[in-house]
Design brief:
The protein has 198 residues and is mainly β. 0% of the residues lie in helices and 51% in strands. It is built from no helices and 15 strands. The strands form 5 sheets. The protein has a 5-stranded mixed β-sheet with strand order 3-9-8-4-6, with no helix packed on it. Strands 12-11-14-15 form a 4-stranded antiparallel β-sheet, with no helix packed on it. It has a two-stranded antiparallel sheet with strand order 1-2. A hairpin with a 2-residue loop joins strand 1 and strand 2. 20% of the residues are buried.
């Protein structure tokens, strides 16, 4: 179903009625779909200058920031939704404008990937091979890492994917902490986690 919104004003001059059409906007009631990252505020305004009342009609998955039956009014549809799971979730809104036109807005809320593997590792001896098998809370995540310069080890800084699988050599007489910064990419959505070795 499609709705047509027409904004106009008229002027009555003696026996002449003049009608001025300011704007004509079409939008589809069942095709309003947007995606957002968990925790990001939506900013949806398909008709400039319009005022909306949006009501949650259904939720699929695990989301906070929305409850079925919850309503709000404003010139921009801007709820903040948080995905509390590792899978995408959807929130469906029934939206009504001041001109009494209704349409459906479906918002897909994608989770932010984080390391699900431990953020600390058992100590290793200097000159030993370090291995770490990272895993993400979101399936299909690409994991890359960087290790910056550390004055307590002789191993030069480097970067890579997934398991570092490298030899770390200490030049210190005391235990040394070596940090790996992991960047997790799941489509459009990215996060950074710090992992500590040794």
């Amino acid at each position: 179903m499609k709705f047509q919104v027409i904004k106009f004003f008229y002027r009555l001059n003696k026996k002449t009625l003049s009608l001025f059409i300011l704007s004509v906007i079409f939008f589809s009631g069942l095709n309003a779909q947007i995606s957002t990252c968990s925790g990001n505020a939506i900013s949806y305004n398909p008709i400039s200058g319009e005022t909306y009342t949006w009501t949650v009609t259904s939720i699929t998955g695990s989301v906070s920031g929305a409850n079925v039956g919850q309503s709000a009014t404003g010139t921009i549809i801007n709820p903040t939704l948080i995905n509390t799971s590792s899978s995408s979730a959807t929130v469906t809104y029934d939206v009504k404008t001041l001109s009494n036109s209704n349409f459906t807005l479906v918002v897909t809320v994608n989770p932010i990937p984080n390391l699900s593997s431990s953020l600390t590792a058992p100590a290793i001896c200097s000159g030993s091979q370090f291995n770490y098998n990272p895993s993400s809370t979101v399936t299909g995540t690409t994991l890359t890492w960087t290790r910056s310069i550390n004055s307590d080890i002789s191993t030069p800084p480097t970067s890579g994917n997934n398991n570092p699988n490298e030899t770390l050599t200490s030049i210190s007489s005391i235990p040394v902490a070596v940090n790996y910064i992991y960047t997790l990419n799941a489509g459009m959505y990215q996060s950074t986690n710090c992992f500590c070795c040794c």
